[in-house]
């Protein structure tokens, strides 16, 4: 598949890139390995300063970075600028908290001294998707670089300019040349990079199929891997919910990033007593969502990232409708240039149809009717995925039932699911394993080394020497 910038609004190829040769990849791997040997000893004060500078650049140049994102994958420009600014918050989060997360943890074992000493693993390969082309990368890179690891980025084939801009960003921020590098390689070359003994771990955000492949390759090489995969997140609405707010949030949660988000709400499970009113309001609001030029501030939904994604989504809708699923709005493939797709609502998903069993990665919502809390939880869990869930209720007992009962990595009550540097992010079941962000994210790629010193024989190292 060509590594290229293709404008989703027109379908025109704007720029193509030549994949790195085997010799160029070897040079980058060699540089990453050599850089790690010295970078891991870099004082935390330097890492903090460079990460803070990266945050400044992400904010200062948000418009420039936003234009690249919009041009390459079609997200609304206002959202693209906000994504760059959000990346700055993640960098600052680890500037503020990274040192504490890396500090030795004392353990009481009686007379001896004992503690857990955290050390970086080495070069980590990050295989990242196109849908949040800056945020997905930075939420890995910020904690990894703070911890003393170095990064190798294999970005999606359709966002090469984003990938190269990120490499340049960290270099301009002050990080050593080999601390963060972009590999312009094909999917078929990933396995060889994972197998390379200089690469110590991998992380992937992507499809279930990609996760199975990278997980298998990493397992064969006996290397740690974090997988953040697909999601078919439930959005549950109970009678005690504030319906107007729930509907407005539901639309936003389904259409965010043109509907192309792993944590976008996709299955809307509504209690039967409020279902008719929710359906009426939701369908009306989805039907009038503004689809158009992603550079226009009024636009709510821009084009999908690629023609392949659009065709795949439409095929899922058509198969579902042919199987008996109801089409309430949208579902018609637009003519003309660009990869546009209308906000679409399906209901009464036919058993076994894509609407009932698959992730719909685009502005397509599926409505379900629930009899009670137990039934709502059963519907929420009737999916191979378990990433996030949004629950709308003002009944404390109900909220606790949903928090305990829904099989997911995250549950948000009376708000939509979002990623936040302060909160661990990840899923269960076919949504992957491991966590990004917060304390859990920085420790995924650290060696938690147990140290026990026989009492009275050797003095424990100072905290400064342990960290630096």
UniProtKB/TrEMBL annotation:
Database matches in PROSITE patterns: ALDEHYDE_DEHYDR_CYS
One MF term in the entry's GO annotations: succinate-semialdehyde dehydrogenase (NAD+) activity
One Pfam family named in its UniProt record: Aldedh
Oxidoreductase among keywords: yes
Domain Aldehyde dehydrogenase: 3-451
The keyword Oxidoreductase is assigned to this record: yes
UniProt cross-references to InterPro entries, sorted A to Z: Ald_DH/histidinol_DH, Ald_DH_C, Ald_DH_CS_CYS, Ald_DH_N, Aldehyde_DH_dom, ALDH_GabD1-like, GABD/Sad-like
Keywords: NADP, Oxidoreductase
Family statement drawn from the similarity comment of this UniProt entry: Belongs to the aldehyde dehydrogenase family.
Name this polypeptide is given: Succinate-semialdehyde dehydrogenase
